[in-house]
Amino acid sequence: MRLFIAINLPQDVQLKVAKLVDRIKPKFRTKANFVPAENWHLTLCFLGNQPENSLTGIKQAIQDTALNFSSPKINFKEMNYGPEKHPYMVWLIGTEQTSKDLAKIKKYLENRLIEYGVRFRLDCRNFNAHLTLVRLPKYGKPNLPEIQTGTDIGFYGKSIDLMQSNLDKNGAKYTRLMEFKFK
């Protein structure tokens, strides 16, 4: 199973984000893959392919983490291209405080996963809270339209979710396998 751990968006927040996305859609004349709203999430940890027997440790690590943190306040500050040096996506970017708060949760979660013997690749980069809205071709970038816009969209994360990613010719389809409520 191809797994990751994420915080999903509530329905009302999805609707607000969808309005931002609708404003930029007409600006893209090049191939742009708009991520469906049901796939919008904040990834805390990508686990990759995991054997069935790793699920017990994964579940315990997520539960431990959720029980040790209150619902985090998640605020987005702008929509812009990312990553900064080589942009090939459109992101809804979290505030610095959101990134710091989620980085603490991520670090705790990774430590619990390691403690429970789950094998995965640690991401040692500074955590940058972002929501991927559009994927663009990685090579041969055309002139990208101006899309930067500030926003004050925010919400409290309700849970940490274990997600499964299934890839097919139409892209990724994400399924929530389990939900662990914050304390």
Describe the secondary-structure layout.
Elements: E1 2-8, H1 11-24, E2 33-34, E3 41-49, H2 55-67, E4 73-82, E5 89-94, H3 96-115, E6 130-135, E7 149-150, E8 154-156, E9 159-168, E10 171-181
Antiparallel strand pairs: 1-3, 1-9, 2-6, 4-5, 4-7, 4-8, 5-6, 9-10
Helix pairs in contact: 2-3
Give descriptors for this structure.
single chain, 183 residues, alpha+beta, Cyclic Phosphodiesterase, Chain: A, six-stranded antiparallel β-sheet, four-stranded antiparallel β-sheet, 26% helix, 36% strand, globular
**Helix segment tally:** 3
Distance between the termini: 28 Å
Helix content: 25-40%
Q: Which fold does the CATH topology refer to? A: Cyclic Phosphodiesterase, Chain: A
- Beta-sheet strand percentage? 35-45%
| CATH class wording | Alpha Beta
Structure in words:
With 183 residues, the protein is of the alpha+beta class. The chain has a single domain (2-181), classed as Cyclic phosphodiesterase (Cyclic Phosphodiesterase, Chain: A, Alpha-Beta Complex), CATH 3.90.1140. The protein contains three helices and ten strands. It has helices at residues 11-24, 55-67, 96-115, and strands at 2-8, 33-34, 41-49, 73-82, 89-94, 130-135, 149-150, 154-156, 159-168, 171-181. Strands 2, 4, 5, 6, 7 and 8 form a six-stranded antiparallel sheet that branches. Strands 3-1-9-10 form a four-stranded antiparallel sheet. A hairpin with a 6-residue loop joins strand 4 and strand 5. Helix 2 crosses helix 3 (96-115). It is globular. The relative contact order is 0.27.
